[in-house]
Design brief:
globular, alpha+beta, 50% helix, 9 helices, 207 residues, Glutathione S-transferase Yfyf (Class Pi), Chain A, domain 2, Glutaredoxin, single chain, 2 domains
Length: 207
Amino acid sequence: MAVTLFHHPYSRAATALWMLEEVGVPYTLSFVDLYKGAQKQPGYTAHNPMGKVPTLLDGDTVVTETGAIGVYLADRYALGRLAPALDDPTRGTYLRWMFYGPSVVEPGCMAQAAGWAYRDGSAGWGRYDTMLDTLEAAIGEGPWLLGDTFSMADIGLGGTIRFMLQFKMLEPREAFTAYAARLEARPAQQRAAAANQAVVEAQGLGR
């Protein structure tokens, strides 16, 4: 069955593209022109009512949300390689960090940048400094979140860390920058970056 990724290079779909490259399954990119509001048109919202990218189609299966796309792809096409087996004790740690980016890091960084006033005990993401310490402990001596084993969680959480560092929304601790450099050196990430740039050039987005 054909795998299609609805994609815009300046969005979280860039991370989903990297996921596909790591998995190694053939795929097609379908450009969604965010600047013209294509993501809000009925043809697209029939797949993703949120009107956001990425959205993945795998035959008749529709998957939205970057973390869910990563879990789906790894379980379906790379179980035991990019995702621990269902009975592997490390799967709990894998799932923990797979969803830490969108549920804790992203809102935590946004709250810090915007100066939101909130009670950290009531917010799911807690305190910004606690989040930073937790991230640093998760990376540890590395090189990956599961020690010597690279997993889809490194793309999910690592992609968030790379993005937040790029836009100066995350304190550039040495553990974070070194981890980001290791991720950027991966051949699949470099292939994804090249594919992303090709879309930028084809669509005239760099002008």
